[in-house]
């Protein structure tokens, strides 16, 4: 029995060691202060019409500059924020900030229907009153709900039933995108259940264009599904002119990626809009 207990302890310790290494624990606690200490910022990546390079909107992407460690990538700190629950406050702040920027940019462009895309964590969706709170943040920022696209992942719609949330906000005009489409379990019944209007093709598939037949096949299939269901497709991670040309050949109309622009500071986004709304890649 003693031997078993010992073995059990070792396992628990191992798990702890990987999940809560000293660095991770420290980051977790630092993250809880990050918002209050103004260490978080938001960068904005243009979403463009692939044909012509017209900017149709921006995706808000959160950034954390740690006072000693420097920039921490969101793929690292968002999961930590989800573990601690800090993502709820961070997510509402990102949404509010992004909506205020949107209003500023629409004024600058003469009320043009620019849109803002904001990522939502499954942890936010699980909050009581998530729908009402989300709508409050949007309207308090002065944004028109129908200019806001909320990006949720297939993963979050598997972990919980998000139909109520999505349906309530759709009724208020907010649009929904299924992010990283094709990456998770790709259960097509989501598309039947959820009133989403946009599918974002994950950059891992775009990366294989135009050479990889499997990736081209997947992109083609996603576009066919979207077409028959009347959904818009946005391709992520477009880095080359060849990828853009291939996507256009497959009749994908919108996308984002380093070819057009990296995520940029709000000031750089304002400068871009002042100069016009065309990015010719
Ligand atoms: P995502 O929502 O799928 O965002 C797209 C990611 O692709 C961003 O990474 C963006 O910088 C990157 N990207 C854009 N164009 C290219 C390209 O041409 N090539 C390559 N290789 N990458 C490109 P980022 O900013 O590091 O964000 C990573 C993920 O973190 C996001 O993936 C999203 O899931 C999450 N995230 C970021 N900000 C937030 C936030 O405010 N809230 C939540 N819940 N998640 C966020
Ligand atoms: Mg996204
Ligand atoms: Mg994505
Ligand atoms: Mg992603």
Automatic annotation (TrEMBL):
Q: Which residues form the EAL domain?
A: 24-277
Stretch forming the signal peptide: none
Q: Which domain of life is it from?
A: Bacteria
Q: Which named protein is this?
A: Diguanylate cyclase (GGDEF)-like protein/PAS domain S-box-containing protein
Q: What species is this protein from? A: Catenuloplanes atrovinosus
Give the taxonomic lineage as stored in the record: Bacteria, Bacillati, Actinomycetota, Actinomycetes, Micromonosporales
């Amino acid at each position: 029995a003693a031997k078993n207990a010992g073995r059990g302890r070792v396992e628990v310790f191992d798990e702890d060691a990987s999940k809560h290494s000293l660095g991770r624990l420290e980051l977790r606690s630092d993250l809880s202060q990050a918002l209050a200490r103004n260490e978080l910022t938001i960068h904005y990546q243009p979403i463009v019409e692939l044909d012509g390079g017209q900017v149709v909107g921006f995706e808000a992407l959160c950034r954390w500059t740690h006072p000693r460690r420097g920039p921490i990538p969101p793929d690292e700190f968002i999961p930590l924020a989800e573990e601690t629950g800090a993502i709820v406050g961070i997510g509402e702040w990102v949404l509010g900030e992004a909506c205020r920027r949107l209003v500023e940019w629409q004024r600058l462009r003469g009320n043009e229907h620019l849109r803002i895309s904001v990522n939502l964590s499954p942890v936010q969706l699980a909050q009581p009153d998530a729908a009402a709170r989300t709508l409050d943040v949007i309207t308090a920022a002065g944004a028109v709900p129908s200019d806001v696209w909320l990006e949720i992942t297939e993963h979050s719609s598997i972990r919980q039933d998000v139909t109520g949330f999505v349906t309530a906000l759709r009724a208020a005009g907010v649009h929904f995108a299924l992010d990283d489409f094709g990456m998770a379990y790709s259960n097509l019944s989501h598309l039947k259940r959820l009133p989403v209007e946009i599918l974002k093709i994950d950059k891992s598939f775009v990366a294989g264009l135009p050479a990889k037949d499997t990736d081209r096949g997947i992109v083609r299939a996603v576009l066919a599904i979207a077409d028959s269901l009347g959904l818009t497709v946005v391709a992520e991670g477009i880095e080359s002119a060849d990828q853009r040309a291939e996507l256009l050949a497959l009749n994908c109309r919108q996308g984002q990626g380093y070819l057009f622009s990296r995520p940029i500071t709000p000031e750089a986004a304002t400068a871009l809009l002042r100069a016009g709304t065309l990015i010719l890649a």
